[in-house]
What we know:
- 62% of the residues lie in helices and 1% in strands.
- It contains 36 helices and 2 strands.
Amino acid sequence: MGIRFIRVLISIWAITSCGLSWGLSNEEFKQSFESARKGKWSHVDAEVQQHVLAPYIEFHRLKSQLPKLSPEAIQQFAETYPDTPLYGWLKKHATSAYGKARKWDAVVALNSKAPADVAGRCIYYRAQLISDQALAFEGGRSLWLHGKPLPDECDDLFKAMISRGEIDNHMIWQRALLSLENGNTRLAKYVARKLTDDSWTSTRSYLKTIIQNPNALLDLPQKVSNRIEVSPLVTAAMVNLANKKIHEAQVLWPKVKSKYAMNENDIAVVNKALARNSYKLPADQRDENTYLRLIEAGNADWIEPVLREAIVASKWHTVLYWTESVRGMATDNSYYQYWRARAFEQLGDQVKADAAYKIAATQRDFYGFLAAEKSSLPYALNSAAPQVNDKDLLAIDSLPAIQRISALWAINEHGLAMDEWSYLINSSPAKSGLFAEYALKNEWYGLSVQATILGRHWDYVAHRFPPAYKELFTQWADERGVDPILLMAIARRESAFNKDAVSPVGARGLMQMMPSTAKQVGHQQDVPYRHGDQLFDQEMNVQLASSYVQTLLEKYDGNVIATLAGYNAGPNRTDRWLAESNGSFDQFIESISYRETRDYVKAVLTYRVIFESLDGDEVISVLEPSERGITQYLSKNDTGPSKTAAIP
């Protein structure tokens, strides 16, 4: 007889039945938890000590005592609660607090080795200046030679090392060049100002000059060339210029290279920077060397922009040329094989087209699925599953981490629950597949997805694409007259089914609605939406997002590609892309100028096929003919009627 697995709320009951009496209700504990976060200890109920989440209260109590808290007390916390992420968080807070209080002995006592974060490492090596200077200097130099801004916690260490000559003028110059090469010109000038020796005055001034006027590279003062190696300076300046003004860099590089004796490694670095940025050049500004550098590199990412240009322009011989120029593992990638096949097909070589389609069709992605259709082959889901047994799954129920995750979920601390889950998996990576199966069985769908990501189980398709919130998506899809699987696919791409997700630009919830868009849709649909936090409610989020998808589908006459592009990048940009399109639907996707949106459209369409396949549906095609019709607009401000062109 199979084991009946518990759901989230039932798992909380299971914890209490194991003999752990929580005492407080969820609401009572949550109130105490919030009071502990705010340091209002008189409002924290004494019974929290009996709760399964007592470690979180203790964490905040100890944190509030920093920097007076002893390292021994922190170590005791680690021994008492060894299986939580809390010790790592407390240790990081303590290291920072000890550093600010200049309690260097406490920093060394707490950290047996340098912390992983840069700020913590700077504090640690500063503390070691007292007890182990050799270690401090070695660590400090490794931190110093970095081309990006470093946190303020590093200032004390670097100041001490510069004053003692452990960071000398040559190392200061090295960091200035690293900063310049990384495009941090302000940092480069700031670092160079630390070259206080009079013999470096001309060099420091020249660095500032070439940042403002790169052509000054052709007029290197004798004083500067006598002080430094020319090749590293030219390399840093040219890479910076290539990243910012590729046309100027392309014109200047041959002149500079012929003027100075540069080493082969530095020449290769500049050539790669020019190749990497060549996509920014209009076609009429590219010369023979532009293409030679791309061919020499053979880098798929650098070649892709010029390949896309050829695809959109239907230059099929050029498409073949660039797909043949890609080297390494990318050569068998479905993207390159599919477009090779399309080119061969257009040029009348069906035999080679069929061969390329069959290679592409072995892969589980957008172009792999399209190639499978072309070859009349089934979609290659390439699905696998973890080998687990009921005994192992049942044993997970009693893990303290699982009990805390259940409790955190019950009080809506989903972010902390995810942190606990990630810590559990990272602590036992060999069991990541087991944890993925456990999450799927318990309908912890967001955690199931997270387990496959942390364990890199890309072929655990059922665990990566679980039927999360299926009833909710079906309800609102039926209400709006849209495909419920399309809504699921959007949510999977947007949030990986994390209803508390927040994007860097402020999109929120399952389907990552922007508050401004939600406000507009809510007004149109008479939905009682008032503030952004409502988007963390899955019902509200899907209600509004499904309405927005419906609006976009109507706007674009049912074209799913344009709908997805509009959902990701906005209708105005999508209208411009449509107005410029004149090819087939796959060419239109490649014409989208935003890589994020291109990848988004392809991913959501791929996910829809996967969800449909896992649901047992017979999937005929990635896109129905009615989903490929492109509405083209004469211009953004055109007031005349739109015209619709069928895309084959």
